[in-house]
Design brief:
Rossmann fold, seven-stranded mixed β-sheet, binds S-adenosylmethionine, 261 residues, alpha/beta
Amino acid sequence: MAQTHTELPVDPAALRASVREKYRDVALHPDGRFHFHNGRPLAALLGYDRAQVDSLPDRAVESFAGVANPFGFHPIGQNDRLVDIGSGGGFDSFVATQLVGPEGRVVGVDMTPEMLAKSRRTAEELELRNVEFREGIAENLPIEDGWADVVVSNGVLNLVADKAAVFTEIFRVLRGGGRLQFADIAVNETVPADAACNIDLWTDCIAGGQSKEGWRSVIEGAGFVDVEIGPAVDVFAGAGGEENARRFNVLAHVFYARKPE
Ligand SMILES: C[S@@+](CC[C@H](N)C(=O)[O-])C[C@H]1O[C@@H](n2cnc3c(N)ncnc32)[C@H](O)[C@@H]1O
């Protein structure tokens, strides 16, 4: 079942503080050991376009920590205005700049200062004019109503305690007919109540996932239609977090939905 505002298993502010601490390391020390794959090996595992990834410098790719490829499911249009929620080191936002073209716009939003600093500096170094990175939280996006043609996100929404709030925000910032396509984890075994409130298990991208039907329910609950769920991706195979991922049968998917006209 999807959560409601009134029954959050963890305190949202405490969770955000833990997430910031963990992802600061991914920004500053991308060669460190994490429970997930990252950087170029992850982009290859997830089937990103090789030429696109190769065209980016290391600092644009090394902190990539997504779980699937949100661009593979439905194409992004030239000139689209795109929001990347939880943009991290900026990898998906940089890929998106190539997809929307020079007349399109990409806004990445993140709450971890080290991630923001990194993505902003990379954008400057690449002299990109169609992307900016804004500080903010997924539950209260620094984006005006109806601005976006498309919202993407990768490996982030499982880290947000209040799923209903974040999908309501995404609905607000999309124009009528706009699309949401995000990659995230589905947890196919029930997480016991004592584990579901364990913040470490949230920051390990386990406890905050939903079942596929749980995701569908919270997406539709915000008013979206045409929900589609892409094939499963075994994103933790061979990574430090594989044991926990197997225990709760965690697999990644791309989720797609549309805001009615
Ligand atoms: C697993 S990383 C993924 C980063 C990026 N999407 C990628 O694929 O490389 C999670 C990112 O989401 C950000 N994040 C997590 N919860 C957030 C929230 N509530 N609001 C804004 N950003 C958040 C973190 O700061 C971190 O940069």
